[in-house]
Amino acid sequence: MPDLAHLLPFALIALGMGLTPGPNMIYLISRSIAQGAGAGMISLAGVALGFVFYMLCAAFGITALLFAVPYAYDALRLGGAAYLLWLAWQAVKPGGRSPFQVKDLPVDGPRKLFLMGFLTNLLNPKIAMLYLALLPQFIDPAAGDVLSQSLVLGAVQIAISVSVNALIALAAGSIAVFLRTRPFWALVQRWLMGTVLAGFAVRMAMESRR
User: Fold this and answer.
1) pTM of the model as a whole
2) Are 47 and 28 in contact (CB under 8 A)?
3) Helix (H, G, I), strand (E, B) or coil at 91
4) Which of 26, 32, 190, 206 has its CA 20 to 30 A from that of 115?
Protein backbone atom coordinates (compact mmCIF):
# COMPACT_ATOMS: atom_id res chain seq x y z
CA MET A 1 0.00 0.00 0.00
CA PRO A 2 1.28 3.50 -0.80
CA ASP A 3 1.56 5.72 2.26
CA LEU A 4 -0.55 8.87 2.59
CA ALA A 5 2.42 11.08 1.67
CA HIS A 6 2.28 9.55 -1.83
CA LEU A 7 -1.41 8.65 -2.07
CA LEU A 8 -2.92 12.08 -1.32
CA PRO A 9 -0.77 14.11 -3.75
CA PHE A 10 -1.42 11.55 -6.47
CA ALA A 11 -5.17 11.71 -5.80
CA LEU A 12 -5.09 15.51 -6.06
CA ILE A 13 -3.22 15.37 -9.37
CA ALA A 14 -5.65 12.75 -10.66
CA LEU A 15 -8.55 15.01 -9.65
CA GLY A 16 -6.95 18.03 -11.33
CA MET A 17 -6.34 16.15 -14.56
CA GLY A 18 -9.84 14.69 -14.42
CA LEU A 19 -11.31 18.18 -14.22
CA THR A 20 -9.29 19.54 -17.15
CA PRO A 21 -10.99 18.86 -20.48
CA GLY A 22 -9.41 16.40 -22.85
CA PRO A 23 -10.61 13.93 -25.49
CA ASN A 24 -12.50 11.81 -22.93
CA MET A 25 -14.45 14.69 -21.42
CA ILE A 26 -15.22 16.31 -24.77
CA TYR A 27 -16.51 13.04 -26.20
CA LEU A 28 -18.62 12.19 -23.15
CA ILE A 29 -20.15 15.68 -23.00
CA SER A 30 -20.93 15.70 -26.71
CA ARG A 31 -22.40 12.20 -26.54
CA SER A 32 -24.53 13.01 -23.49
CA ILE A 33 -25.88 16.19 -25.05
CA ALA A 34 -26.51 14.62 -28.45
CA GLN A 35 -27.96 11.28 -27.33
CA GLY A 36 -28.79 11.54 -23.63
CA ALA A 37 -27.18 10.75 -20.29
CA GLY A 38 -27.69 7.00 -20.75
CA ALA A 39 -25.52 7.01 -23.86
CA GLY A 40 -22.95 9.04 -21.96
CA MET A 41 -22.85 6.42 -19.19
CA ILE A 42 -22.36 3.56 -21.67
CA SER A 43 -19.53 5.51 -23.30
CA LEU A 44 -18.07 6.12 -19.85
CA ALA A 45 -17.98 2.35 -19.24
CA GLY A 46 -15.74 2.05 -22.31
CA VAL A 47 -13.57 4.89 -21.01
CA ALA A 48 -13.24 3.05 -17.68
CA LEU A 49 -12.03 -0.08 -19.50
CA GLY A 50 -9.37 2.05 -21.16
CA PHE A 51 -8.21 3.21 -17.72
CA VAL A 52 -7.95 -0.42 -16.58
CA PHE A 53 -5.88 -1.28 -19.67
CA TYR A 54 -3.40 1.54 -19.00
CA MET A 55 -3.24 0.70 -15.29
CA LEU A 56 -2.37 -2.94 -15.95
CA CYS A 57 0.22 -2.04 -18.59
CA ALA A 58 1.91 0.38 -16.20
CA ALA A 59 1.71 -2.02 -13.25
CA PHE A 60 3.18 -4.98 -15.11
CA GLY A 61 6.28 -3.36 -16.45
CA ILE A 62 5.78 -1.00 -19.38
CA THR A 63 6.76 1.85 -17.09
CA ALA A 64 10.02 0.09 -16.20
CA LEU A 65 10.73 -0.48 -19.89
CA LEU A 66 10.12 3.17 -20.64
CA PHE A 67 12.59 4.31 -18.01
CA ALA A 68 15.18 1.81 -19.26
CA VAL A 69 15.27 3.41 -22.73
CA PRO A 70 17.55 6.47 -22.84
CA TYR A 71 15.71 9.76 -23.33
CA ALA A 72 12.30 8.04 -23.56
CA TYR A 73 11.12 9.65 -20.33
CA ASP A 74 12.18 13.13 -21.45
CA ALA A 75 10.59 12.65 -24.87
CA LEU A 76 7.30 11.59 -23.29
CA ARG A 77 7.41 14.37 -20.72
CA LEU A 78 8.09 17.12 -23.26
CA GLY A 79 5.61 15.64 -25.72
CA GLY A 80 2.94 15.62 -23.01
CA ALA A 81 3.74 19.22 -22.07
CA ALA A 82 3.44 20.28 -25.71
CA TYR A 83 0.09 18.48 -25.98
CA LEU A 84 -1.27 20.25 -22.88
CA LEU A 85 -0.10 23.60 -24.24
CA TRP A 86 -1.94 22.85 -27.49
CA LEU A 87 -5.12 22.10 -25.53
CA ALA A 88 -4.66 25.35 -23.61
CA TRP A 89 -4.34 27.31 -26.87
CA GLN A 90 -7.43 25.62 -28.28
CA ALA A 91 -9.34 26.85 -25.24
CA VAL A 92 -8.26 30.51 -25.28
CA LYS A 93 -7.64 31.24 -28.96
CA PRO A 94 -10.07 33.59 -30.74
CA GLY A 95 -13.03 31.53 -31.82
CA GLY A 96 -12.07 28.68 -29.47
CA ARG A 97 -14.86 26.53 -28.17
CA SER A 98 -15.82 25.16 -24.79
CA PRO A 99 -16.16 21.38 -24.43
CA PHE A 100 -19.77 22.10 -23.42
CA GLN A 101 -20.61 23.47 -26.85
CA VAL A 102 -22.84 20.96 -28.59
CA LYS A 103 -21.29 18.81 -31.31
CA ASP A 104 -23.53 16.94 -33.69
CA LEU A 105 -22.97 13.20 -33.34
CA PRO A 106 -24.84 10.34 -34.99
CA VAL A 107 -27.05 8.13 -32.84
CA ASP A 108 -25.07 4.97 -32.05
CA GLY A 109 -26.03 1.68 -30.42
CA PRO A 110 -24.69 0.52 -27.02
CA ARG A 111 -21.92 -1.64 -28.49
CA LYS A 112 -20.52 1.19 -30.59
CA LEU A 113 -20.90 3.68 -27.71
CA PHE A 114 -18.84 1.40 -25.47
CA LEU A 115 -16.20 0.80 -28.15
CA MET A 116 -15.87 4.50 -28.99
CA GLY A 117 -15.46 5.35 -25.31
CA PHE A 118 -12.75 2.72 -25.00
CA LEU A 119 -10.87 3.87 -28.12
CA THR A 120 -11.17 7.55 -27.17
CA ASN A 121 -9.46 6.81 -23.86
CA LEU A 122 -6.92 4.43 -25.36
CA LEU A 123 -5.77 7.15 -27.80
CA ASN A 124 -5.79 9.90 -25.15
CA PRO A 125 -2.23 11.27 -24.65
CA LYS A 126 -3.21 12.79 -21.29
CA ILE A 127 -4.01 9.35 -19.84
CA ALA A 128 -0.85 7.82 -21.29
CA MET A 129 1.13 10.63 -19.66
CA LEU A 130 -0.59 10.09 -16.31
CA TYR A 131 0.20 6.37 -16.16
CA LEU A 132 3.58 6.23 -17.85
CA ALA A 133 5.19 9.39 -16.48
CA LEU A 134 3.37 10.55 -13.35
CA LEU A 135 2.33 7.34 -11.60
CA PRO A 136 5.90 5.95 -11.19
CA GLN A 137 6.91 9.11 -9.32
CA PHE A 138 4.50 8.22 -6.48
CA ILE A 139 5.75 4.67 -6.01
CA ASP A 140 8.25 4.09 -3.20
CA PRO A 141 10.08 0.74 -3.49
CA ALA A 142 10.98 0.98 0.19
CA ALA A 143 7.28 1.04 1.13
CA GLY A 144 6.57 -2.49 -0.10
CA ASP A 145 5.55 -4.38 -3.22
CA VAL A 146 5.76 -2.11 -6.27
CA LEU A 147 3.04 -3.98 -8.15
CA SER A 148 0.59 -3.55 -5.28
CA GLN A 149 1.36 0.15 -5.03
CA SER A 150 0.83 0.57 -8.78
CA LEU A 151 -2.52 -1.21 -8.64
CA VAL A 152 -3.72 0.83 -5.65
CA LEU A 153 -2.70 4.14 -7.24
CA GLY A 154 -4.30 3.10 -10.52
CA ALA A 155 -7.52 2.13 -8.76
CA VAL A 156 -7.62 5.53 -7.01
CA GLN A 157 -7.15 7.32 -10.33
CA ILE A 158 -9.86 5.27 -12.02
CA ALA A 159 -12.33 5.88 -9.19
CA ILE A 160 -11.70 9.64 -9.25
CA SER A 161 -11.78 10.01 -13.03
CA VAL A 162 -14.89 7.87 -13.52
CA SER A 163 -16.73 9.75 -10.75
CA VAL A 164 -15.81 13.17 -12.17
CA ASN A 165 -16.72 12.19 -15.72
CA ALA A 166 -20.00 10.62 -14.61
CA LEU A 167 -21.07 13.81 -12.85
CA ILE A 168 -20.07 15.93 -15.84
CA ALA A 169 -21.84 13.65 -18.32
CA LEU A 170 -25.04 13.66 -16.25
CA ALA A 171 -24.98 17.45 -15.91
CA ALA A 172 -23.69 18.19 -19.42
CA GLY A 173 -27.02 19.40 -20.79
CA SER A 174 -27.67 21.81 -17.92
CA ILE A 175 -24.11 23.17 -17.99
CA ALA A 176 -24.26 23.63 -21.78
CA VAL A 177 -27.51 25.61 -21.51
CA PHE A 178 -26.08 27.76 -18.69
CA LEU A 179 -22.94 28.64 -20.66
CA ARG A 180 -24.82 29.18 -23.92
CA THR A 181 -27.11 31.74 -22.30
CA ARG A 182 -24.30 33.45 -20.36
CA PRO A 183 -21.43 34.28 -22.75
CA PHE A 184 -19.34 35.91 -20.00
CA TRP A 185 -19.21 32.73 -17.92
CA ALA A 186 -18.48 30.70 -21.03
CA LEU A 187 -15.45 32.94 -21.61
CA VAL A 188 -14.37 32.61 -17.98
CA GLN A 189 -14.66 28.83 -18.22
CA ARG A 190 -12.49 28.75 -21.35
CA TRP A 191 -9.75 30.95 -19.85
CA LEU A 192 -9.76 29.09 -16.54
CA MET A 193 -9.43 25.81 -18.41
CA GLY A 194 -6.62 27.18 -20.56
CA THR A 195 -4.73 28.55 -17.55
CA VAL A 196 -4.91 25.24 -15.67
CA LEU A 197 -3.74 23.28 -18.72
CA ALA A 198 -0.86 25.69 -19.35
CA GLY A 199 0.18 25.46 -15.70
CA PHE A 200 0.29 21.66 -15.89
CA ALA A 201 2.31 21.92 -19.12
CA VAL A 202 4.93 24.26 -17.64
CA ARG A 203 5.28 22.13 -14.50
CA MET A 204 5.64 18.97 -16.54
CA ALA A 205 8.23 20.51 -18.87
CA MET A 206 10.35 21.71 -15.94
CA GLU A 207 10.36 18.40 -14.07
CA SER A 208 13.47 16.27 -14.34
CA ARG A 209 13.92 12.52 -14.24
CA ARG A 210 13.75 11.14 -10.72
Assistant:
1) 0.68
2) yes
3) helix
4) 190
